[in-house]
Amino acid sequence: MKYITRLAWGIVIYAIMYLFSNGLSIYGVAGGIPAVAARLVMLVIITTIAGRSLQFTSWKDILPYAIFWAFTVFALDAVFTLPFSGLQMYANWNLWIGYTLVILLPLVAPQTRIFRDDTGVIS
To answer: Residue 6 and which of 59, 69, 76, 81 are 20 to 30 A apart at CA?
Structure first.
């Protein structure tokens, strides 16, 4: 298993989501359904790119990486967000859904790849 890939993508996922969420806050659109939808779309994009970067064809190969990425995001939340928010941040169900999606979304990444056979036919 590629240990740098394990750690690096976890950090990238956290950093992009953190910056994106703060950007929404800065422009006053952090609350409400549109902001949640925008964060969800961003998370889908990032985790799909991360899953595809592994170049595996089976979700079983991606799963250990995705679990480690979710653990990395959890640990970074504990280091950077917990001191300001306190333990009540873990009472927010959106946070746990995000951790779950970090695990599940990369697993579908192989289905987003275009495969060409020997004759050049796309499948």
So the answer is: 81
